[in-house]
């Protein structure tokens, strides 16, 4: 799950839409071959979990057909809801020795039986707190959840060559866009329709991960209620389309109240982070996901949290054929494609 290495289509299945990104790698770097998204029926995904896999399968098939992407190898990711990630300290040893010892001691770190989970790990660095110890990133995902997800992708006609985790796909996309910030702790927040994925990275390594149960749908619902309008119209207003005709005071109330709730959740997550890393400083926040496009969101978070914030567009440093892809469209859709792009950076044969 953890390492980058023939080109794969990145497939991101969200509660609002499925996204696909296809890249090719040349001497000048990565080049965009294809990308697109298709909306998922509302009842298909609920609370971050797939409830109607047959609907998702149909959406995946239609999107692949529209993009002229042939059935083949893909990289996909599972949500943090289905994954447990933990940084542990282990005595310094080889990777082979570590694998043997973790199999013996897995019950200390994972609240499941070994035969119920897929386990992966990566040695991060020498421990800063104990001599002759090393930091290890441990990832465990329930086999049942991974198996059902893989079966759904195969039913749609794909071969899942890599199953990643949203946190790592997000981090890989950021690194490909901005490089590694060796001296800064960076907060990455991918804000979807109903779930927000947060990871704090230090020198390209995940330091802290958290999933939060808020997203753009909560603002849509609040706008619809405040203005007495349909969810569809509320969605357009949320993105700044037709907002000039709405009651400005009520619209502002809907935004401010919802964003205040979001900020409370973020502060709670950051408080937990600081309880484990009391000396750490957070230098910047980068926002992605469909709901990162909400007008003024980055300024609101920056004012409330006191941390410089900006929207991340991972397509801005990807080589693009301007005759084939409309730059304005890429600028608009870019933040939504972050996890899919992070997956497209993976290679068949990755661990």
Can you tell me about this structure?
The chain has helices spanning about 55-65, 95-105, 145-155, 165-180, 215-225, 230-240, 250-275, 295-305, 325-335, 340-345, and strands at about 10-15, 15-25, 30-40, 45, 50, 75-80, 85-90, 115-125, 135-140, 160-165, 185-190, 195-200, 205-210, 285-290, 310. It is α/β, with parallel strands linked by helices. Strands 3-2-1-6-10 form a five-stranded mixed beta sheet. Strands 13-12-11-14-15 form a five-stranded mixed beta sheet, sandwiched between helices. Strands 7-9-8 form a three-stranded antiparallel beta sheet. Helix 5 crosses helix 6 (about 230-240) and helix 5 (about 215-225) runs antiparallel to helix 7 (about 250-275).
From the structure above, extract its key features:
351 residues; alpha/beta; five-stranded mixed beta sheet; 10 helices; 35% helix; 29% strand; disordered N terminus
What's the SSE blueprint?
Layout: E1 9-13, E2 17-26, E3 29-39, E4 45-46, E5 49-50, H1 53-66, E6 73-78, E7 83-91, H2 95-105, E8 117-126, E9 133-142, H3 143-155, E10 159-165, H4 166-178, E11 185-191, E12 196-202, E13 205-212, H5 216-227, H6 231-238, H7 248-276, E14 284-288, H8 297-305, E15 309-311, H9 327-333, H10 338-344
Parallel strand pairs: 1-6, 6-10, 11-14, 14-15
Antiparallel strand pairs: 1-2, 2-3, 4-5, 7-9, 8-9, 11-12, 12-13
């Amino acid at each position: 799950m953890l390492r980058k290495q023939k080109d794969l289509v990145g497939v991101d299945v969200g509660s609002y839409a499925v996204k696909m990104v296809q890249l090719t790698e040349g001497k000048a770097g990565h080049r965009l071959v294809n990308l697109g998204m298709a909306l998922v029926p509302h009842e298909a995904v609920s609370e971050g979990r797939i409830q109607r896999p047959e609907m998702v399968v149909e959406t995946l098939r239609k999107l692949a057909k529209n993009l002229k992407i042939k059935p083949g190898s893909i990289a996909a990711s599972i949500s943090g809801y289905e994954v447990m990630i933990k940084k542990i300290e282990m005595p310094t040893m080889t990777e082979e020795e570590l694998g043997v010892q973790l199999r013996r001691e897995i019950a200390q770190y994972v609240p499941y039986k070994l035969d119920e989970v897929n386990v992966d790990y990566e040695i991060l660095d020498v421990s800063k707190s104990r001599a002759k110890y090393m930091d290890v990133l441990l990832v465990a995902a329930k086999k049942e959840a991974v198996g059902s997800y893989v079966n759904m992708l195969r039913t749609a006609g794909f071969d899942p060559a890599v199953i990643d985790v949203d946190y790592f796909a997000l981090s890989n996309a950021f690194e490909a866009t901005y490089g590694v910030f060796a001296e800064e702790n960076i907060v990455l927040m991918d804000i979807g329709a109903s779930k927000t994925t947060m990871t704090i990275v230090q020198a390209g390594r995940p330091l802290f991960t958290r999933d939060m149960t808020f997203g753009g749908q909560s603002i849509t619902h609040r706008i619809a209620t405040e203005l007495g309008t349909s969810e569809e119209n509320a969605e357009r207003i949320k993105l700044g389309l037709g907002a000039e005709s709405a009651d400005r005071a009520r619209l502002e109330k809907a935004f401010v109240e919802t964003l205040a709730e979001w900020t409370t959740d973020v502060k709670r997550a950051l408080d937990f982070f600081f309880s484990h890393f009391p000396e750490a400083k957070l230098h910047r926040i980068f926002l992605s996901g469909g709901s990162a496009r909400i007008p003024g969101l980055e300024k609101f978070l920056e004012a409330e949290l006191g941390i410089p914030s900006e929207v991340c567009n991972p397509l801005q440093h990807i080589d693009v054929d301007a005759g084939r892809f409309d730059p304005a469209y890429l600028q608009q859709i870019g933040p939504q494609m972050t996890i899919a792009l992070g997956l497209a950076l993976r290679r068949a044969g990755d661990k």
